[in-house]
Amino acid sequence: MDVYVEGKEPEGEAGTPFRISLEPSYRHRDALRLLFILVAGSEDVDRPTEEVVSVFRAEKRLMAMDFLVRYPDYLGDALLDLYEETREPELLEAVQRIFINDEPSIRLVRMVRWRHGAYQNVEDALAMLSYYGLARPMQLAGDDGKIRRYEYLILPKAISFLEKCVQDYPELAWYRDRLALVMRVASGKSGSALKEWQYEHPQYGSTIQGDVIPTIQEQVEQRLTKFAGLEP
After folding, report:
1. What whole-number distance in Å separates Cα of residue 159 and Cα of residue 194?
2. How much is the average pLDDT of 213-226?
């Protein structure tokens, strides 16, 4: 199974189902990114078993967190919101690093606006994760039998697999570290709350269905400059 890292060159093969390659395969890249998201955003189950260690709830939240990984400028804006509330210097420094490293250009993986906001078909990626015994989607139905939401079961192999990925390919630590920042924004928030925040941005909300969601890099840079200028 191949995994592709934005802006990185291959460094050989790891002793895992994944392999770094120059040949484009968005399915494999998406699978790895989604696994980092699922593990970082999951909750412990009441009774962990040999088959399931945690669970991620739910699809809308998965899409919202994926958007923050794929659009570093929007993540920067969310972190500036937190900085406005807490004045934690680490948050301002994190946003500064995002722009110093030109991540809104280099790390950008565009998403399409659909009925309920940013959307990406993740079926292939999730099928891949399920096949390799890393994560498994689960449908939850209501009393009427209709599917109400999706949850994603995290299997024990997923934790050790991601650790090995980072150990064998240190550049993949970017995903781990990025999810730590995303969780500063997403922790304790539902998918609906995260989506509502996205819609507060005119560029996002005014995007026509089926069109690519534009970046807000310039606006966030201006906001960052303002906050940085207030620092002693």
Report:
1. 25
2. 94
